[in-house]
Every structure is written in C-alpha cells, then in structure tokens.
Amino acid sequence: MSQDEFDKLVQGAYGRIPSRFRKQLRNVAMLVETEPSPAQLAEAGVGPGGTLLGLYQGRPLTQRSVFESFAMPDRITIFQGPHERLARGEAHLKRMVEDTVWHEVAHYFGMDEGQVRAAERRRAGVARRGR
Question: Any idea what DSSP says for residue 34?
C-alpha cells in the first residue's frame, strides 16, 4: 500500500473517533512513520522480536494543569510497516489501524496500558453485539 493510501486509513480512523472525544484533543500531532525506531521501541518497552503499531508520546490530559504555559505538541505515531505485515487483508488492516488510533488516543486521555486493554475488550464486545 502506498504511503498516501495508508495516511488516508489513519485519517479515516481519526475521523471515526466520536466528536465528543475529538473536540478534546488539543495540541496533538498525528504522525505516520514507516517503522518504529530503536529508541521508540525501547521507550515503549518492546523487546527483541517484538513490534510496535503505534506510540503516544506526551503528557496525558489527566496530568495537566490549566496553569501550564505553552507546551510542545503531544505526538501519536502510527507505524505503517508493522500494520501491513500483521494484517490478513485490507479489511483487517483498516480495523487494525482504527484500533491502534483508538488505543493511542486513550493514552492521551490518561489511560494506562491495562485500562486501554480493558476498554478495547469492552469496545470489541459492543461491536460484536451490534452486528
């Protein structure tokens, strides 16, 4: 898949985040990179042979104060290569990208890894019941 096509998948996934959450995303850069760097893998605690689909870098909303001065944008990076290698087809790739964007946005809102995983299980259960 071309970089432009993958960028559109990420844009579409971002657009499917409910507006009540999107409106609260401030000073966040959404980036797409081909592969995670060794430093990004280390930051995320990914060991040898592991991979990384996305990475939130910043200060979660729950740890901020209204009295803080200007800060550099938080970053959400989505990695194209790992998604494409793990996807079992185009529909699966699209779903994986959506899940990754949701996952990283949840970190922005202050959820730790355990809370994000629990929310993902609830979201998957709702999606299955809605079919």
Answer: S
